[in-house]
Amino acid sequence: MIKLIVIDVDGTLTDGKIYMGSDGEVLKVFNIKDGCGIHDILIPAGITPIIMTGRSSKILEKRCNELGITEIYQGVSDKPRKLAEVVNCAGCDYSNVAYIGDDINDIGCMQLIKEAGGDVGCPADAVKAVKAIANFISLRKGGDGAVREFIEWLVCNEDED
Question: Bridge-partner residues for 136, per DSSP?
Fold first, then answer.
């Protein structure tokens, strides 16, 4: 049974573009359907959303606050190590975790989870190496509803168990 879903941000929850002005990052684009999936489907299903990203952004903090996401890990350079901490603190194991990511910095986490029997997914525009390990590949690109599709797939799979 999935208890946690770890969601990468840039390229997964967003389109992967970084909009920067002279004062730094000025814009991130989020899909409302992804947000609805997190807030109105995932959380009521008892699955805790966890954000884990290599970048840091005040914009992301604001969006997470709107969606009720309380576990946000930004500036993470070693995702597998942080994942181990998160899973340990939650009192579960990798088989109880789902992960959605799009690039090579997500592969370590995805392999750990998939090998343990958890679920791993990616957007349609993920890199080939990520697609090769994913057991769910969205028909949508990152930032275009891929996270929502993965959430619906997870919740439907949970209902069948």
Answer: 121
pTM over 0.90, yes/no: yes
Closest Cα partner for 86 from 130, 52, 43, 118?
A: 52
**SS3 call for 152:** helix
Helix extents (H) in 15-99 = 32-36, 58-67, 79-90
What 3-state class would DSSP assign to 98? strand
Q: Please give the structure tokens belonging to residue 66.
A: 């709107």
Instruction: For residue 11, give both structure tokens.
Output: 């390229």
Residue 108 pairs with which residues in a beta bridge? none
pLDDT in tens, 124-140: 999 999 999 999 999 99
48 Cβ contact partners less than 8 Å away, ≥ 6 residues apart: 3, 4, 5, 71, 90
